[in-house]
Queue: 2 jobs
Job 1
Amino acid sequence: MDPLIITVAPVGAEVMRDQNPNVPYTPAEIAEECYRAWNEGASIAHLHARLPDGRPTQDPAVYREIIELVSARTDLIIQVSTGGAVGMTRSERIGPVTLRPEMATLTCGTVNFGDGIFMNSQEDMEFFASAIRAHGVKPELEIFDAGMVENARRLEKKKLVEFPAHFDFVMGVPGGISGDPRNLFHLISLLPEGCTWSVAGIGRHEIPLGAIAVVLGGHVRVGFEDNIYLSRGVLARSNAELVAKIARIARELGRPVATPAQARKMLGLPERAA
Ligand code: KMH
Ligand code: ZN
């Protein structure tokens, strides 16, 4: 089995410090969390940006600052969000892709997102897919519900994404597919030939679904974007604790953890210049 790619999602767009005081906001704080997560075995950083008061922003200047700080201290694969936050416009959301990071997310459909609606119409998806492609960035196809895999296939038919691609199953968002392990088996069964996949379980689903991915040969995303608890009722002190936990489980189960260089190879990304 290939080594396990661990993605750290250190901040997201929704979670705030009143829920966990360790949530990073500033570029320096986000970069520090990425550095600690890298030390524990993360190989991809799924980045969102925040303003100093914690509000989400897609401002490329803020992303640039985070990326420079992360890349100065680690060889993490940089993956920017094009999801941003519910309610952001397309042109806002695409902002960080103009920095030509190695990867960017591409959500393959609209989904209820708690009380909001995370809008990704066909036209939106084609806009994001075209821009990601035009900038030479590798997409990670975000799947919040089963029909989204079919939408990904439509994008491939239109030559807006290439297969085999890398998918991420986000499971347990209120409004999307639930974190029931049976759903993970179903999603995997829908994947086009040769595609790689990871799972991002929301809240209490994060580690159990991650453990299943470890066994099945998939990959795992952990971090405050998806889950703020280390165990029931115990807030994680850092994203690194969540990375360390899934890395420990992987090792116990006999699955080595990928370095960023190994992850680049598995994902078909060019090597990073030393
Ligand atoms: N914040 C969510 C509405 C992504 O990063 O591409 C969307 C999201 C997905 O986080
Ligand atoms: Zn995200």
Job 2
Amino acid sequence: MRLVLLGPPNSGKGTQAAQLAEHLGIPAISTGDMLREAVAEGSELGRRVDSIMQSGRLVDDETMAAVVRERLAKVDAAKGFLLDGYPRTLPQVETLEGLLADADRELDAAVQIVVPKEILIERALARGRKDDSAEVMEERLKVYGELTAPLVGYYGGRSLLRTVDGDRSIDQVFASILEAIGR
Ligand code: ADP
């Protein structure tokens, strides 16, 4: 299975991605985690993206294309994958389409997790990651609305979109996702 998880910051994508990956036997690929690891390692990439991430803005599409191309080329992604946090812009959608087409593969579904904004902000303040302050969270939500939300229309138009209500328990959301993807 090749899946994309869509949802605003703090919608629970990461939690669901980990559980789904385990259940489906495919790797969960979180670009946010990959970038945070790069920052922690102090690599060239990490030094370049650190302040961008802390401000709540997006890392540029070319940088992300290189990160994702390299990750999807690893052997474990041959049997399928679940992308968490990519694509986040329409150009990133095109990059992914290109990578899949090159490998003669297609996406099976894009799962959108919907959560009301007040809940997202509440969760961010409870989580307390570096980029979870009220101010940065506002910026991340704005970026999501402007750059990422259009992907919902795109995947909807290709009949790949599955929408689930994320304002419920982790187990309930997980069950709905499995149902939505027919597992
Ligand atoms: P969350 O899961 O809370 O939405 P992530 O952990 O996915 O957040 O991402 C954290 C930050 O990493 C983003 O705000 C952005 O700066 C950067 N980032 C992650 N994935 C991408 C991407 N596909 N394109 C651009 N920037 C990204």
